[in-house]
Amino acid sequence: MRKWGKWVAEIREPNKRSRIWLGSYCTPVAAARAYDTALFYLRGRAARLNFPDDISVGDDADHEAIAMSAASIRKKAAEVGAKVDALQMSGGGEDRRRQAEKQYKNPDLNQTPGPESSDDEWSSSLQ
Description:
Blueprint: E1 7-12, E2 19-25, H1 28-43, H2 61-67, H3 70-89, H4 93-105, H5 119-126
Antiparallel strand pairs: 1-2
Helix pairs in contact: 1-2, 1-3
Protein name: AP2
Domain AP2/ERF: 1-52
Function: Probably acts as a transcriptional activator. Binds to the GCC-box pathogenesis-related promoter element. May be involved in the regulation of gene expression by stress factors and by components of stress signal transduction pathways.
């Protein structure tokens, strides 16, 4: 999270020092989904994703991963991130954004997650 409240995503290219910029987003979920998309196209089905059950690409994605350029990967990841951001933010516009920033700005890392903060909450809000 940047100090101005945006969540950013970037990924290193395999066997290179360069990075692929994936964009900046209003929610951490959108940034994570953009990262997952790029990682999937770079590593294929063996990638360790944040949301492994929610990746949606064609069956020939493993073959595409070899041929895709950094620009193509950036474009696909940005599309996914923008869609997730739109879904996350559609519930209340600016108020929802401020609420998300406040919630993720200073999380209590020592607190044990309760049943109300399960992963099901995120997946159900994205559908």
